[in-house]
Amino acid sequence: xxxxxxxxxxxxxxxxxxxxxxxxxxxxxxxxxxxxxxxxxxxxxxxxxxxxxxxxxxxxxxxxxxxxxxxxxxxxxxxxxxxxxxxxxxxxxxxxxxxxxxxxxxxxxxxxxxxxxxxxxxxxxxxxxxxxxxxxxxxxxxxxxxxxxxxxxxxxxxxxxxxxxxxxxxxxxxxxxxxxxxxxxxxxxxxxxxxxxxxxxxxxxxxxxxxxxxxxxxxxxxxxxxxxxxx
Length: 231
Ligand SMILES: [Mg+2]
What we know:
There is one protein chain. 46% of the residues lie in helices and 14% in strands. It starts with a strand and ends with a strand. Strand 3 (123-127), helix 6 and strand 4 (151-155) form a beta-alpha-beta unit. It contains 8 helices and 8 strands; from the N terminus they run E-E-H-H-H-H-H-E-H-E-H-E-H-E-E-E. The chain has 231 residues and is of the alpha/beta class.
């Protein structure tokens, strides 16, 4: 696939790295570290505030650490969207990435493409439903080291939903390129529809390893191998 663009906007899960990374690596790591993290940091004001909120939501006494940890574990097992759990998981991941216990998952073909596009003068941006802080952890502590320097900027859903064309228009304005001069890469056909509606070029990553098949509505590739962008 040969494209002409000044900037590439790139999704993470299913595009740069595996969809399974969050489920198979990040969530189990947070669950495994939960008790030790609470023990080590539970008296720090920022952590204590989160534990108090967890106790409140679980209906257990704020001082009952084992009961709080049990509640957190149980929410984690159900993948419950409970704010104190999400906040603690985030804190645990920051520690894990900083300690080198977890590394951001990046497919080799994706890394090669990022380097190739960047060398060719294409400006690179990330758009993921993971927070910008989480995106920076993934790329700052990747299997290939610190890759933050490759990117001109990071966007998450604070700019808008990935399924709405207006989000891509806002991103284009922030990047300072016409939408037609930006190519969006994602595994998700509905996201690509929204980007195309905003005027962007759209390419689907249909990676067999992630169980994604080509939707048929966009240009599709199985990997970034052979994807070239001229500016
Ligand atoms: Mg994705």
